[in-house]
Amino acid sequence: VHQSKMDFFCKLGYGKQDICKVLESLGREALEDDVLKELIRMGSKPQALESQPQPSQLKLVARGSCSTTPGLKWLGKDESDSSNSLRPIVIDGSNVAMSHGNKEVFSCWGIQLAVDWFRERGHTYIKVFVPLWRKEPPRQDSPIADQHILEELERQSILIYTPSRKVKGKRVVCYDDRYIVKVAYETDGVIVSNDHYRDLQNENPEWKWFIEQRLLMYSFVSNRFMPPDDPLGRHGPTLSNFLSKKPVLPEKKWQPCPYGKKCTYGNKCKFYHPERLHQAQLSVADELRAKIKVPLAPGKEEERCRCSP
């Protein structure tokens, strides 16, 4: 206990002699708050502050740090901010495995590919739901490939088995799709599946909206997990914004007018005209009307009257 207190106050920057004096006077069983008050009363200062007579406000906050610059946490930027800004991922394990196995084999390698893809993007909350009976040895009517991957993902707390049991020789399986949608809805996450869950949409109107807006479909191309770049269609959000809690809106870029200087739309043209930045954008007809309304000079009016019959 004595050594732990010594290490604690040494990390704060106090000298060992001052710490030993205070511990001898207060006793080794003294609380850390009492020791700190006694050090302050004695006038002892951390070594980092003694070397800097006029420290800035930020350095006073981070006086116990070893580096001269304040850490990310003191500036309000935590290392986990990037992972917290991403949505939780809930994977339909049966759907992904059967898709990778060409709907003939339950391929566990497909689940691993999907998990690795989201890990590389920085997602920390990844859950895969698979029925419990997939733990059983494979049979001819339900072949399983790379079954050891399920055990590894279970050890990593990524894979979750939905309950099932046998009653009088018949297997009773709980509906794993309800687990998937419920967990994704409660965590405000994303469902990774090619299933539309139409029965669950009709069951709960809130789930209907959630499934329509948070369902991420995918494809396997040569053992490569590939979700679409536009999960909600051509005019929807990008994949990055779809997987992020705080979507980043793209900057509005003006498209140059295909007609250029020959454009006759004037201020009604929706395209960008760099040559009209410092002039009024009038249409050709409006410019002609404006010229007609301008009165002529007195001399020119007399000449115009003489020339007219």
UniProtKB/TrEMBL annotation:
<dbReference type="GO" id="GO:0036464">
    <property type="term" value="C:cytoplasmic ribonucleoprotein granule"/>
</dbReference>
<protein>
    <submittedName>
        <fullName>ZC12D ribonuclease</fullName>
    </submittedName>
</protein>
<dbReference type="GO" id="GO:0008270">
    <property type="term" value="F:zinc ion binding"/>
</dbReference>
<dbReference type="GO" id="GO:0016787">
    <property type="term" value="F:hydrolase activity"/>
</dbReference>
<comment type="similarity">
    <text>Belongs to the ZC3H12 family.</text>
</comment>
<dbReference type="InterPro" id="IPR040546">
    <property type="entry name" value="Rege-1_UBA-like"/>
</dbReference>
<keyword id="KW-0863">Zinc-finger</keyword>
<keyword id="KW-0255">Endonuclease</keyword>
<feature type="zinc finger region" description="C3H1-type">
    <location>
        <begin position="251"/>
        <end position="276"/>
    </location>
</feature>
<dbReference type="InterPro" id="IPR021869">
    <property type="entry name" value="RNase_Zc3h12_NYN"/>
</dbReference>
<dbReference type="GO" id="GO:0004521">
    <property type="term" value="F:RNA endonuclease activity"/>
</dbReference>
<dbReference type="Pfam" id="PF11977">
    <property type="entry name" value="RNase_Zc3h12a"/>
</dbReference>
<keyword id="KW-0479">Metal-binding</keyword>
<keyword id="KW-0540">Nuclease</keyword>
<dbReference type="Pfam" id="PF18039">
    <property type="entry name" value="UBA_6"/>
</dbReference>
<dbReference type="GO" id="GO:0005634">
    <property type="term" value="C:nucleus"/>
</dbReference>
<keyword id="KW-0378">Hydrolase</keyword>
<feature type="domain" description="C3H1-type">
    <location>
        <begin position="251"/>
        <end position="276"/>
    </location>
</feature>
<keyword id="KW-0862">Zinc</keyword>
<dbReference type="GO" id="GO:0003729">
    <property type="term" value="F:mRNA binding"/>
</dbReference>
<dbReference type="InterPro" id="IPR051101">
    <property type="entry name" value="ZC3H12/N4BP1_RNase_Reg"/>
</dbReference>
<dbReference type="InterPro" id="IPR000571">
    <property type="entry name" value="Znf_CCCH"/>
</dbReference>
<keyword id="KW-0460">Magnesium</keyword>
